[in-house]
Design goal:
Helices cover about 25% and strands about 25% of the residues. It is an alpha/beta fold and about 300 residues long. It has one domain: 4-Layer Sandwich (Metallo-beta-lactamase, Chain A). The strands form two sheets. A seven-stranded mixed β-sheet has the order 6-5-4-3-2-1-14. A seven-stranded mixed β-sheet has the order 7-8-9-10-11-12-13, covered by helices on one side. Helix 8 (about 245-255) runs parallel beside helix 10. The longest helix is centred in the first third of the chain and has 19 residues, at about 1-20. The two termini are about 30 Å apart. Bound molecules: zinc ion (ZN). Zinc ion binds near residues 46, 89, 91 and 208.
Length: about 300
Amino acid sequence: MRVVVLLLLLHVALPVHALADQCREDIYLQILGAGGPELDDGRTSSGYQLWLNGQAKLLLDTGSGTSISFGDSGADFATVDAVLFSHLHTDHSADLPAFVKGAYFTGRNRDLYVIGPDGNHLMPATGEFVQRLFGKNGAFSYLSDYLYKGRERFQLHAVDATEPGENAVFVKDFSWGLVAALTVHHGPVPALAWRVDVGHCRLVYSGDMSDNTQKLAGFATGADLLMLHMAIPDNAHPVAQNLHMSPTQIAQIAKRVQPKKLLLSHFMKRSERHFNESLRLIRQQFHGEVIIAERLLTIPLSHSDGAE
Ligand SMILES: [Zn+2]
């Protein structure tokens, strides 16, 4: 009898504590593009936006076509505080100029942060990337007033998210929450995973990465929504495996993190050919909710009452 009472008490007590720590904000992730760089895959390239209290606050990557999706979503660019880049490949960054120029026709009057990885011999750092686009000698130098104190109503602030140490993360505070970056391995290309914390809600975005460093799962602990890119099948060429995580690696990460929701995105024809098999591999190890990204799909981070 005493055991039954104890169990009943635990049953009542545990959910109350758990509910207090649950994500209850009005927060959603929306897919602007769930594809890679292929031209004939019927998808826009990768990009996502975070909605908070009915306003778009963040863009995560701006691959080609994402500015069209942004318009279709009904979002207003005037409310966006930052663009966070996972890396600077075209399928993640090509629409940045479209957003900056398009902003002219909105009521935007707040500065825009553009935050992304540091550079190397292959890729410019994010600050240099923005200079090469909008600087005085940039391809779109006619927009250079956005970088210098000019006549425009807002300024662009480009930030290289360099890490102070191997396990340290870049962090930036906004009025509504915190964003943090972790260096990840995407072959020879500097790349970041991003974590966004708003209240008790946590979103983690892998970007494109192999899991060679095996650091993502630790970074993603406590994620309500974990978004991983599934660009290859398990039997992909070694070159592709050096750039992207395999479905088996996705399964292992999801199993460790145990997110409330696992979102798969960045599909390519090579991964779609093996889609069912890859999904089966993932579901063998991860038994939670798996969501397949598609353009304009909107996913709440919060949980309904009683959800664990
Ligand atoms: Zn990509």
